[in-house]
Structures are given as C-alpha cells and as structure tokens.
Specification:
By secondary structure, this protein is of the alpha/beta class. The protein is about 40% helix and about 15% strand. The protein has two domains: about 5-25 and about 285-390, Aspartate Aminotransferase, domain 1; about 30-285, Aspartate Aminotransferase, domain 2. Helix 6 (about 110-120) links the parallel strand 3 (about 100-105) and strand 4. The longest helix has 19 residues, at about 285-305. It binds pyridoxal-5'-phosphate.
C-alpha cells in the first residue's frame, strides 16, 4: 500500500489528523471528481439528460458493490442511508403479533428503536442476546437460541457504532440458513474496512452506508437483498414506481431484482461518487485495508492503554478500526473538543447511542477514535501525545 500516494489523493490529510472515519471518512480525489463532474453535467445538459448519458456508469455502481459483496448486481439496491436501507428491509417482513426478533445488546440504537416501534405497532417480541465473557456473542449459545426460539428474524450489527467489536456473523449466518430464518446484518461500520462476502455470511439482507470507511459521499447507503428473499416476494411496505409497475387499477408488478427496494429519485452525482469510492476501495483491496487498520489500531490501543486515567473500552475476540476510550477526569465531549482544537478529528458516542453496552461498561459514553489506512503512525503518535498531556 502506497500510503504517500493515498494521502496525496486525500486533500483533507493536509489540514487535519482525521480519526473520525466511523463518522465520515475523508473522500479521496476520484470520489470528489466524480461528484463534481456529474453536477456540472446536470447543470449543463439537464438532470434527466445527464442520467441518460451516464447510465452505463451508474449501472457500474451496482457492479462494483456486487464485486465487493460477492453477489450479483441484481441483488444490490441503493438507498439514502444505512438506516433507510435497514427500514426498507424490516418493512418487507410481514411480521405478525408474537413474532420474535432475535438481536444483540450491542445492535445499533436506530435498529433497536425500529424493533421497539415494530413491537408497539405489531406486537413483535424482542430478544436481545448479551455478549459473552469474550466480549462478543458466544456463537454456540446464540445458535442454540436461534434453534430453540425460532425467531422470525435474526438481526446482528457486525461492528457496533461505539466499539471495535467484530461480531462473528458468518457463524450465525450458517445457523440461520440451517434453520431457514431471515438474517439481517447491519454492516454500516464494517463496509470499507473489512472484507464482506454475503455468501460466506449467509445473510438475507445486509445494509451499509458509503460515507464511513468506504470514503464515499454523505447521503448514500446501500443494501444487499438475497435472491432467496426476492424469490419469496418480500418487498418494502412503501414500494414505489421504481420498485414496481402499476399494471392495472388494482394491481402492481414488483421488480424481480433488488431495485424493488429502491425509490425512483436519486442524487446521481452521489451515486457516481459512491461508485468511485467502491472502486477505489476494491483497487486497494479490502484484505489489505483490514490488515493495515489492524496494525494502526493495535498500535493505538497499546499506547493508549498506558496513559494514566484513560480506560480502553473495546471488548471482543476480534477488534477493528473503532477505538473507544473513557477518561476518569474528562468527559468524552471535553476530550473531543480539546483534540479538535489541536486539529485532530474524533467523535463521541453518547449513552443513548449504545445504552446497554455503555451501562454494562459503567460509562456515560466514550471518545471514539477511528483510524483508516491513510492515517499514519506519526498521526497516531501526535494524538497519543496530545491525550497523554491533557491535564488531569
Ligand atoms: C452500526 C451502525 N449502523 C447504522 C448506522 C446508521 O447509518 P446512517 O446514518 O447512514 O443511517 C450507523 C451510523 O453511525 C452505525 O454506526
């Protein structure tokens, strides 16, 4: 990996130490160029005409994602965010009173709220599985729960918003396939920093965004919808004229592909930015990215663990590029602001972002540092040094 070259293609690197890739990463130049070029084209020839002119490139977004996810382009849908994708997946499941959603205690807050909303409206039951002593769900016990509880849906967040934990989703997926249970994976924080193979994972739905580790623009998400699900006829509740054709006064015909899950209108400049981001990531290689990030974060965790007053909060057998810490003498917000004033971007995960996990860890929130491959050891050293000299 040519870090120098990658940084030269990342204008934001010049001004800041950006350790907020779990919030939104710095876009590289090809992403920026793709967005700007399409906006200019729209302004010059007209929005619909620009779409027509670039239809092959737009189709390339699906092809690039399909390459990353190991699926067909017909199993990919674009959305406005990860949460949008997740809601579309949930809305396609015809829940009945008493149906169970089996999930985890560290699943994303918006997902938890959506489950609670489904409980309020349809009377579904929610079972939240606790992480085991190793920090992640204990697969044997979780899979026994799938077999015993026969949930309508198993929903697991691959990497939580507030910790470096990587949940063992492929092992869960195997059991879901065995039990013929729907499996929904929130890969919002893993997309772009870890390899994602939906065949190996065995999921029915996988949802994510572009702006985080994929380094795409804000305002675009995507989802994988398996052929299994498409063949079963699942479709989002508010399917529109992109997802279906109105073929009779009382009838519509759903699109056979995952386009069924899309809306008609898209910001195509961002779609092309998303394509550029996915291709950029594929060019570098997901495995190489994961290895580089493991190296950066291993170093960061080791050094941070030596700073008095600072507690590392990440738990799990496999940890990734989200590093969370709590300081005994400073709030996460104060630390974030202090670092920001030193030109270091980080973020804060507050209590309501991960209620159960933070309550179990006994903290009201955490400072979140999320390096990505284009960060350097020198940048990490500067951050470590800045945190080490914060007055107690
Ligand atoms: C684990 C996880 N899932 C889902 C989301 C939601 O993503 P979006 O804001 O694109 O809807 C986030 C955002 O931080 C997240 O961390």
């Amino acid at each position: 990996m040519d870090i120098k070259q990658l940084r030269a293609e990342t204008p934001g690197c010049l001004h800041k130490i950006h350790l907020n890739n779990a919030g939104a990463a710095l876009m590289p130049l090809p992403v920026l160029a793709a967005i700007q070029a399409h906006l200019e084209l729209e302004a010059t020839v007209g929005g619909y005409e620009a779409h027509k002119q670039k239809s092959a490139e737009i189709q390339g977004t699906y092809t690039a994602l399909a390459r990353y996810l190991n699926c067909t382009p017909e199993e990919v849908a674009l959305t406005s965010s990860a949460t949008d994708a997740y809601a579309r997946a949930l809305s396609s499941i015809p829940f009945e009173p008493g149906d169970m959603i089996l999930t985890t205690e560290s699943d994303y807050a918006s997902n938890q709220i959506a489950f609670l909303s489904l409980k309020k409206r349809f009377g579904v039951r929610i079972e939240r599985f606790a992480n085991g002593p190793g920090g992640q769900i204990e697969v044997g016990a979780f899979n026994l729960a799938i077999a015993a509880l026969k949930p309508r849906l198993v929903a697991v967040t691959h990497v939580p918003t507030n910790s470096g934990l990587v949940q063992p989703i492929a092992e869960v997926g195997q059991e879901c396939r065995k039990q013929d249970v729907l499996f929904l994976v929130d890969a919002c924080q893993s997309a772009g920093q870890l390899p994602l193979d939906v065949q190996a994972i065995g999921c029915d739905f996988l949802t994510a965004t572009f702006r985080k580790f994929l380094r795409g623009p804000r305002g675009m998400g995507f989802m994988y919808v398996s052929n299994r699900v498409l063949e079963k006829g699942l479709e989002p509740l508010f399917i529109d004229m992109r997802g279906a054709d109105w073929i009779g006064e009382e009838r519509y015909l759903s699109n056979p592909t995952a386009r069924r899950f899309e809306d008609w209108e898209f910001p195509y400049a961002l779609v092309l930015g998303a394509k550029a981001a996915t291709e950029y990531m594929l060019e570098i290689g997901p495995e190489k990215i994961a290895a580089r990030n493991r190296e950066l974060c291993g170093y960061l965790r080791e050094k941070l663990s030596r700073i008095p007053g600072l507690v590392l909060l990440d738990q799990g057998q496999e940890l990734c590029s989200i590093v969370t810490v709590f300081h005994h003498h400073h709030t996460p917000e104060a630390l974030q602001q202090y670092l920001f004033l030193q030109n270091i971007n980080t973020s804060v995960s507050g209590l309501t972002a991960a209620l159960i996990d933070f309550e179990k860890k006994g903290v009201p929130g955490a400072l979140r540092l999320s390096p990505h491959y284009y960060n350097t050891m020198e940048e990490l050293d500067a951050t470590i040094h800045t945190l080490a000299i914060v007055k107690g």
